[in-house]
Amino acid sequence: DFLCISLVNGFIQLRYNLGDKTIILQTFQKVHTNGNTWHSLKAGRVGNEGYLDLDGINISQKATPGMNALDTHTDFFVGGVSSLNLVNSMAVENEPRSFTGCIREIVINNKELKLTTTDPKGGANIGDCDGTVCGYTVCKNNGTCKVENSGFSCSCPQEWTGSTCEQSIQCSQNRCGSQSLCIPQSTSFSYTCICALGWSGKYCDSKIQFFIAKFIGNSYIKYTDPYYRKRDLQYSRISLNFTTNQTEGLIVWMGKGEDEDNDFLAIGLANGTLKIVINLGERISVPLIHSKYSTCCDERWHFVTVVQNQTCIKVYLDEELIIFEDIDPHRKYTALNYGGICYFGGFEIGREVNIVTTGLFQKEFIGKIKDVVLFQDSKKIQLMKAEGYNVYNGN
């Protein structure tokens, strides 16, 4: 498998192969090669349906039957490769050549790559395209960079301050307490404090304990399973109690949630119905539960258990078996390699649920969660000792 973006006779070309055929998209317009014009390029695929966008002009390739997962298992290369022999002959139109020019602001699956001298795994023959200490994003939030004898300085817009314009004026003298986050409110020229787990109050200065976690939206808990290395990942299990009056929301996501190839098991609400989705390798989704079970949003406590026995999935709601599904009778993938990470209620501040889950779930969870048990553990996990924000005492 491969996915390759290249410059061919002045046109941008996207080629990808998911295991059965090579799909090719090419822009209608040429790029400027005068060395002074920056171009915005977006390219990718959903399943085997591809898209290519150059400076706002889009080209799409409609999906056809075939493979829909990209399994590369290699490093990610920008501008060239360590050896041109590594390039698949179908990935480029002519003989492979390294790129000559400037590249900046690379975003892969909503995560920006840091093109510095220390962050990549390796590289060769790369220089500073800007030619000064200012670079591209030294000054944040539309600040203007100026070269100084001692280095550089940033001239900031009136709403921002700090050496690199990284701090809002509203939060420059905030009263937010221990480990909390200050979120500027530009319309009212004020700020809001988002409290870390174990703290509450307007300024997050009141210490709290809880056994029932209350999620109010823009909330999340990230739990790292200390026993992950000892788990038999072909036989996973999670159970919990929840209550809500909302019809949409992500209750739990077992998985790293970093890119589309990560395994996951998810429990949530969609259109007032409990929804279970599991990916053991190729984003195989368990169907929605039948509408007669759409009693999850009545502000009562409900007990849900999901059991994965290789590719067989059982779902219990309030002690009743409501799903028994074999999601892959061929047993191609049988283990839930979730990385030992469990998210409850949502994801980190700034990571939207609908984006991270690629539309499987639309919103953060609003409600309460308690009594979470992983696998066959004898003890409930202590949500208080995890990482998270905006979660409060639900007793």
From TrEMBL:
- Domain (Laminin G): give its ranges: 1-129, 210-395
Residue ranges constituting the EGF-like domain according to the UniProt record:
130-166, 167-205
Q: Name one GO biological process term.
A: developmental growth
The record's annotation in Pfam families points to: EGF, Laminin_G_2
| InterPro entries reported in the protein's UniProt record | ConA-like_dom_sf (IPR013320), EGF (IPR000742), Laminin_G (IPR001791), Neurexin-related_CASP (IPR050372)
Q: Which UniProt keywords apply?
A: Calcium, Disulfide bond, EGF-like domain, Glycoprotein, Repeat, Signal
Gene3D superfamilies the record matches: 2.60.120.200, Laminin (2.10.25.10)
Note the PANTHER family from the entry.
EYS PROTEIN, PIKACHURIN-LIKE PROTEIN
Put simply, this protein is called EYS protein
Species annotation: Ceuthmochares aereus
Q: Which gene encodes it?
A: Eys_1
